[in-house]
Specification:
Number of strands: 14
Structural class: alpha/beta
Number of helices: 10
Distance between the termini: 31 Å
CATH class of the largest domain: Alpha Beta
Number of domains: 2
Order of helices and strands: EHEEHEHHEHEEHEEEHEEHEEHH
CATH topology of the largest domain: Rossmann fold
Bound molecules: uridine-5'-diphosphate-4-deoxy-4-fluoro-alpha-D-galactose
Oligomer: single chain
CATH superfamily of the largest domain: NAD(P)-binding Rossmann-like Domain
Length: 333
């Protein structure tokens, strides 16, 4: 299939670009404005077009010229804290640009769409909804979560208006790890995610890791998250793409179904790296729910997907391989 990947120069998108080609022989065209992505992350024969999605007429021409059959839409801003400070950036990048992309698809007659949504659309679920299934009420507590939920709603309206549109909305939990051969990986600026920060501390690139809150109502007082390996996540996208149907949207939570605390992740990093990692215990980070982990049963029973990387040391090890090979990210290549 000819697949257009938006945000294909970013962390998750670049893994999609690689695996769509390597694992399934698809032809890939990337549209990325390189605001956060890296040209060097786009691997294989993929064509990289550096452009804004907002220019939908141009994007429609790209689709037509490359006979695109499916769009995987990764391009987005994804920092919860930043979204509180700069909400308009999030509604513009994540919501308005998704509308522009749909316009381009409409113009070019592309009918298959796989959307990167997020567990942030659930907000802070009450205990009875954990582990989190797809029917958990969606009550986002940040502009980031709302910017993605709006797109889910827009997709439903658009699909209802045309009848032949096929789409998936995949709600990610904490995406982690990197391509096991270390060729591509996570390179954010600034880096805010737990696993890369811990590993940067292990590699001597940071003095310490600060734990944001040690007084949560969790077994060891630190927040619990569901860390899903990026390779598994992309496998789920490919399975979903093959299963798209006009009958109904495919809506799935992507996680491993098990939560690890911040302290457990640090212990895993100590085991994997064999390095001393200095910890500082700090205050809570505003907006962090204590416990978030998925119930991934629906995608398993519907499509047969389940995460293969379920051992946290295995997930952390792939991220460590990347950092060892690229301590300064793509710019250090
Ligand atoms: N944490 C620390 N110290 C750090 C960084 C993180 O203690 O230096 C903690 C956080 O407080 C949180 C956990 O580690 O408890 C995980 O934090 P991340 O920033 O790695 O991930 P989040 O759970 O905050 O965010 C993820 C995705 C977002 C998504 C969100 C949904 O990265 O894109 O889940 O809640 F929106």
């Amino acid at each position: 299939m000819n697949v257009l990947v938006t945000g294909g120069a970013g962390y998750i998108g670049s893994h999609a670009v690689k695996y769509l080609q390597e694992k399934a022989g698809h032809q890939v065209v990337v549209v990325d404005n390189l605001s956060r992505g890296h040209r060097r992350a786009v691997k294989g024969e993929a064509i990289l077009i550096v452009h804004e999605l907002a220019d939908w007429k141009h994007v429609a021409r790209v689709m037509t010229n490359n006979q695109i059959e499916c769009v995987m839409h990764f391009a987005a801003k994804a920092y919860v804290g930043e979204s509180v400070e700069r909400p308009l950036d999030y509604y513009s990048n994540n919501t308005a640009d998704a509308v522009a992309l749909l316009r381009a698809m409409d113009q070019a007659g592309v009918r298959k769409f796989v959307f990167s949504s997020t567990c942030a659309t659930y907000g802070e679920p009450s205990d009875e909804h954990i582990p989190i299934g797809e029917t958990c009420p969606q009550r986002p507590i940040s502009p980031y979560g709302r910017s993605k939920l709006f797109v889910e709603q827009i997709l439903r309206d658009y699909a209802a208006s045309c009848g032949d549109f096929q789409y998936a909305m995949l709600r990610y939990f904490n995406v982690a790890g990197s391509d096991p051969n270390g060729e591509i990986g996570e390179d954010h600026d600034p880096e805010t995610h737990l696993i890369p920060i811990i590993l940067q501390a292990a590699a001597g690139l940071r003095p310490h890791i600060e734990i944001f809150g040690t007084d949560y109502a969790t077994p060891d007082g630190t927040c619990v998250r569901d860390y899903v390996h990026v390779e598994d996540l992309i496998d789920a996208h490919m399975v979903a793409m093959e299963a798209l149907t006009t009958d109904h949207p495919l809506v799935y939570n992507l996680g491993i179904g098990k939560g690890y605390s911040v302290r457990e992740i640090i212990e895993s990093a100590r085991r994997v790296t064999g390095k001393a990692i200095t910890i500082k215990e700090g205050p809570r980070r505003p907006g962090d729910p204590p416990r978030l982990f998925a119930n991934p049963a629906k995608i398993k029973s519907d499509l047969g997907w389940q995460a293969k990387h379920t051992d946290i040391d295995d997930i952390v090890r792939t991220a460590w391989t990347w950092i060892q090979n690229h301590p300064h990210g793509y710019n250090g290549e």
